[in-house]
C-alpha cells in the first residue's frame, strides 16, 4: 500500500516520484555497528575449534563443544540429521549470561529427524552419514563439509568468518585497562568501539542494554556457480557480489518509493539462500529474526583469472559463498542438500510450510485503490466491470473506509451500510477485502485501544511504558502479537459476533506490519523495545509481521472454520507463507519496477512465497496506457493479480483509458481467467508437494548455464514459459528457450495463441503486437483451462474444461488437474478429484490420484491437441464401454476435438482415428 | 507613417443580441417551436372521426401487439428439434415460438437453411443444425449458434422481456452470454437463469 513519511506526500508528487527513496534514511553496514564488526572478520578470520573429546553422537544428532581460541569462550554445537537430505546446525553459548533468543513459529512444526547411519573418525575428521548425505566435521580450524552423494555441496565456515559475540557485562569504565586477564585486549578494545553498548542513528538512540551479541557464519557452495534467494530485495534474481558494496540487508522496513537494483532491505525478510550449479543445488536457511546482513562472494571471474585458471587447468579457486551476519540470537542454520533445484525448494517447504490451497477467487483478479471513496464508488466500479463485460472478483478497501483509522470500525458517512454493500458484491459472486493494520490509534473512545491499554497488550518501551509511535492514525500503539493472549484477543475481533459489520466472505489485508512507524528509526520500531517474554525488539523484529499474521489467520479460521482464509501481507518472514499472500509493496509506475516484479516474485517463490504479485500499474505515479497494458499482461501471469494505486494518482480503472487500452486489458483478464484451473491445480500441488508455482528457468533446466541469469521469464510449474513484454514500444522481444541436457536439445514450446511450435534453443526473437505477450506451453504437458467467460471466478465452478495437449518429441504429453468446491476445507477430508491425463500413441486417457470423491457438474468441453503430424479424420471416445464418435477440426496449428462431454470423475479413453 | 484601415469589428466587440439577422432567426425558431408544442398539446382534441390517427386507438393497438408478441415469444425448449418441427409449420394456430435467447427479428435465421444447416448470423460458418444450441460454441466470431447457453464468450442472450416504445422503436435488451445460468439474475424478468437450480429470479420489469 502506501508508504511511510506522510509528510512527504504533501511535498508534491512530481518531486518525490522522480527522486525515489532517500537512502540516507536507512542504515548502511558501516552505520550498523554489529555489521561493521562482523564484517571486519572477513579480513582477519577467526579462530574457532572443536574441543577435543567433547563429541557425542546419537542416533539422529551429534553434539560437541566449540571454543573461540582468542578468548577461550565456549559454545555448544548441535548437528541434527533431518529427513529429506537436510541437516540442522545450532550453535549457542555453552553458558550464556542470559538465554539468547531462538526463533519460534517460523517452522511449520518440529522438523522430522532423520537417522545417522554411520559415523567414522580419522585424523581429526569426524564423518556422519545419513541417507545419501554426509557431514564431515573438522576440528581445528572448525569447519563442516556437507556432501550429497559424493559431491561437496555446502561447506560451513570454510572461510573462517564465523563470529559469535558472547554476552558480557558492561565494564564500568570501558576506557580503562581491562580488569584482570579475563578480557583479552582485543575484546576490550572492541567493547570500546562506538556502537557497542549504545548506538545512534540520525536522531534516534538505541540503548543496547545487552551490549554486543552478533552472530555470523559463512557458507561456501563448492558445487555452485550462482547464488539466489534471500528476498526481499528489488534486485536481480541471481545475487550479485557484494565486494565493494554494502551486503544484502534483511530487515523488515517500510521503504517509501524504493529504488530498483538495490541491496537495501524491503518489507520482508526470508533468510534462505541457494547455491546452484549444473550438478548440484543446495540451500541454507539461516533462521534468525534479528537484523541480518548477507555478504555474497560470487564466483564471477574476470578475464585475467579465468585465463589463469585455463592455463593452470584448475577449477576456479573460490566457490561462491554467503556470509550471514545477524545482530542477536543464535546460529541456527538448516543445510538443504538438494541435489536438484526442485528438491532443495521442497526441502525448504518441508521445514517452513507452504501457502495452503487458496479459494479460487483469490487467484482471480483483484481491483484495489487507495481509496474507493464510499459505498457508491465500490458499487459503481463493480458495475462498470459488468458494463464492459470484464471479469473481476474482488474489490478492496484501503485505510479510508475506517472511522479515523480505527480498525474494526467503518466511517459512518462514507460507508453507512457496509452489510448492504457487501451483499451487493457477494450476490454477483464477488468478494470484498478490507485492510486491518497493526497500529492502534491512541483514542480513549476506541474499544481496541482501551482493551489493550487496560490489559497491557501493547509493546513496551525499556522503562515499561506502552510504546507510542506515529502512523496513519497519528499517535498509535502496537499490540505485542508475540503474546499468545494478545493474538487471541486480536483474532477474536474478527468473529462476526465482535465485528458485526462484515460477513464471513470479507477477507483481510494486513499492511504496515514491518512494523511501520513514521517517526521511528528507519521508519520502524526502536530496537530496544520490549516484547512478551522479555525479548528485545532487536531479537524479534523480522517476526513481528509473522506474529500479526498468525493472529489474523487464526481469527479468520475461527470466524468460519469452513472457509479458507485469504490474507495479504506486506511484511513477512520465513514461514509467513503458511498464512498469507504477499505483494512487492509500494512500487512505482515505471518500466523498471514492472521488470522487477518478475525478479522479486521469482526470488520469493523459491523462498516459499509462491503467492506473490506486484501492484499493477505501479503504486506511485501515473502509468501511460502502454505501461498499464503491458503491466496487466505481465500481472496476469503472476500468482497474485491485483491492480492498486496511490491516493494521489489519477483514477485508472480500465475504462478510463482509450478503448484500445480497455480491450487489451480485457484480453489480459480473460486470459488469466481461462488459465485459472492451471493456477488452482498448481497451488494444490504447492500444498501437496512444496513445489513452487512459479519457477525460474533453472528449476527445470539446471544444466543450462545461460538460463541461470534469465529473470525476465518465468515458468508456471513446468507447463508454461512466460516472457512478458516489459519494454516500451517494442514489436519483438527476445525469448530464451532453455537447453535440457548437454546435447543442446530443448523442449518443444508451443505458442499458446497460435500453437506454433518452437524447437530451437537459445535466444530467439519473437514478434509481438499490443495484444500479445509470448507465452509458450511446453511440449509434453497438458494444461487444463476454462474458456467460458464469467464476470467472476466463483461463478465458473460448474463450467466445462478445455484440455490443451502439447506433444513432445515422442508424441506424448501428461498433466494434472485438481477439482473441488474451491472454497471449503472439504478437500482435506478427501472431497476432491485429482486427475492425471496422459496422451500417448494417439490416445488420451485419464487416471485418478486418490479416489475421485467430489461431485462436480463440470465436464470436458473440448480437447486441443498441438503437435500432431496431420489432421485426424475423427476421434472415438470410450466411456464405460460405450463408444461415441467425435468431430475433429483444425484450429490454427492445432487439432480440436469437439465436445467429448465426459464428466470429470469418469474414466475415459479418447482415440484419434486416421 | 502610413495609415492602415482596420475593420470595425476588430476594434469593437459586437454582442450577439445586437446582430439583427441572428435575432430574427432566433425569433422565428422560437415561434416555430411554440407552435409545435401548442399543436402537440391539443392532439387529443382531434375529432374521433379520423380513427386511423387516434392516439387512444394507437395505444390500444400497440398493447394488443405487445401481448401477441409476448405470447409468440413464449420460448420453446431452447433445443434444435423443436425449432425444426416448428419450421415444418404443422401448428399454424399456435403462437410462434422463438428460441430462448433470440429475438423475433432473427426468427428466420434460426431455421435450417436450404442445406438443412445453421449458418452463423455473421455468415462466417455453416454448421449442422443439431449443433445449434448444443452447449458448444461453433460460431467463434459472433457466438450466434448458442443463443440460449453460455458456451460462447462473445454471444448475446436476448431477454424475454423486450421493452418497446409505442412507435416500435427501442434497443434490444440483452445480456452477454456469460451471464446465462451464472446464478445471478440479470434480465429483469430473470429469463437468463433458466437451468439454475434453486435460483428464483423475481420479475422486476417495469
From TrEMBL, chain A:
Chain coiled-coil ranges: none
Gene Ontology biological process terms in this record: carbohydrate metabolic process; N-glycan processing
Main location: endoplasmic reticulum
GO molecular function, one term: carbohydrate binding
Residue ranges with Basic and acidic residues bias: 199-208
Subcellular location field: Endoplasmic reticulum
Chain spans, region Disordered: 172-209
Keywords noted in UniProt: Endoplasmic reticulum, Glycoprotein, Glycosidase, Hydrolase, Signal
Biased composition (Low complexity): 173-188
Pfam family, one: Glyco_hydro_31_3rd
Protein name, entry field: Glucosidase II subunit alpha
TrEMBL record, chain B:
Single biological process term from Gene Ontology: N-glycan processing
Domain of life: Eukaryota
Pfam families referenced in this protein's UniProt entry, alphabetically: PRKCSH-like
Domain annotation Glucosidase II beta subunit N-terminal: ranges: 94-206
TM regions (residue ranges): 21-40
GO CC field: glucosidase II complex
Keyword Transmembrane on entry: yes
Protein keywords: Membrane, Transmembrane, Transmembrane helix
Cited InterPro entries: Gtb1-like, PRKCSH_N
Name of the protein in question: Glucosidase 2 subunit beta
Organism of provenance: Drosophila lebanonensis (Fruit fly)
